[in-house]
Queue: 3 jobs
Job 1
Amino acid sequence: MVIISDASEEDLEQIYEIEVESFDKPYPISLLKAYLYLSNIYIVAKEDSKILGYAIGIIQFKKRGHVVSIATRKESRKKGIGTLLLSTLEKTFINNNCTYSYLEVMITNREAIRFYRDMNYLVIYTKKNYYGRGRHAYIMMKSLINKSLE
């Protein structure tokens, strides 16, 4: 059974494994550790003691939720783990009166873009060189107004 819980320092090694497996330019473990203390929401999806995925979110200006990072192990993809993590972030954003959620995604990451579209995120604009020279990002947004807290 998959459980969503707050991340802890003990989880960092497994979170970093997922980060390295998921991104061309992963966050260093020191930044992942800093987010434990800087972010409003840092959660993991666990089955027994194995972390299947994680998500980091920040509430900005008391009205918007920023999905800083979300990733799952390759073998855990397309099994609902990402949906569970993102839905949990969004519920926390709603509970804190955020009116929308947004994120950045590399324009070449078709799998992630499809996932976010399935979760009702829309591409708002393209941010040139967001991930470095010639590596652009879509800024995607989802309204949280009138969303239920199911």
Job 2
Amino acid sequence: MRSTAIRLGLCTVLLAFTAACDEQPPPIEQPARPIRTFTVTEVASGQVRRFSAVIEASDSSSLSFQITGNVQKVAVNQGDQVTAGQVLAVLDQEPFKLSVQAAQADLQTTRANLAQAKAEYERQKTLYEQGWVARARFDNAERDYRATLSRVDYAVARLSLAERDLRNTTLTAPFDGFISLRTVDAFVEVRAGQELFRIDAEGGLDAAFGVPETTIAQIILGMPASVKLPQFAEAVEALVTEVGSAAGAGNTFPVNAALIEPPAGMRPGMSAEVTVTLADEAGETGYLVPLSAVTPGEGPEQGFVFVYEPGSGTVRRTPVKPTVTLASNMVAVTGVAAGDIVATAGANFLVDGQAVELMAPPAGGGAPG
């Protein structure tokens, strides 16, 4: 009995010892590796282009009368603010009112003739059906009746045109905005389609500029731009919204960039300078980084940088492709973006997802810290 208890005790000790041997030791927490960093800000030289531009309203319209006539009244001046439907100018309406009256009288006459022609047609039809007249007389009456119907339709259309011309003697604003151009005065004869006013819609402004044929392929819709005016201290951000498909004057292609938040006081007609960062053939933009930040890859023109992730305190292995190597130990690469923080000193010892600690605050666009 006693030997049995001893055996059970020895087995328990052996099992506990075996379990203790099988347990893995707790992992040793690796300390964060200190690194020096560089903040990507500067676009590779040669990819920044500047163009002279003119500020324009995003929505602008030239206004004219649809008819020829003598201007009786001009109700607005250049620079006035107008609302949709507001009267801008009025032609002399007397000749157009007379045209309406003449068309109304002609319509009444033709309708009276129609009544007579219809009555004669019905009479001849009855006589023909009863055998009192020949077929020829009935055909003549039917032909006169249908011709009179056509004359009534023509008179109705003529009256509609006369009434439309009378309405068109008043020129109104199509939308809210400002009168940016006025070329008419009262008591002058104007032609149909002659530009009299230009109205610019409120709010939106564009920078219009020309791009030479050697560069237009690198201008794409939606690309960012910076618009600088001498009257304002800060540049205004913009987005390219229109790219012309045919060259204009000076063999340049028209391009428009919509200003995102134009400041108060900026007006159409002001001179500006537009700065754009051109993309390469693959549609990517090169940024300058220190050569020490690039870790060579397995093949030619392949490499990596380690981008610092502030949220997790780790680095992300990011593939890059070199474009231009500079004498100042800087290289232009694609694959990074403005604002990225890349590791410089110690980059060769990093792995993807490794915890790091910044040795110095990153200096935007400066030398590696």
Job 3
Amino acid sequence: MIIFIETLARSTLVLYIKGQGAVFKALTICAFFVTIYSTMFDKLQQLKELKKMRDEAMQIQKTLDSETIEVEKNGVKIKLTLAQRFISIDANGKDDSDVVEAVNEAVKESQKEAAKKMQGMMGMDSLKGMFGGGN
């Protein structure tokens, strides 16, 4: 037995059942079911778009994690990824205020570099102001 559906006038579906060499018009489905079908199809398309966006975001994150910068300020050396994951902090016996200043500077620099990298990857001018990269 084979079942297939034909769309008529965008608001009616006709369900056919083919069996024993003959085709029978089994049921005409009202616009309500067409709406359900269309809604399900739209949701599927939305899920595909969300997956695509998620995959792109994961690729960007992977790229940002793979690149590092090093910043030295007030004798404190900091190494971190463009995703702001700290790799090392060498305080060289400096006091906490010097370390805090160096960390803040390193984060600011990594944000600028990340914004530049994302602009290049995505081609979006709207990212200019994000992460402090617009100045």
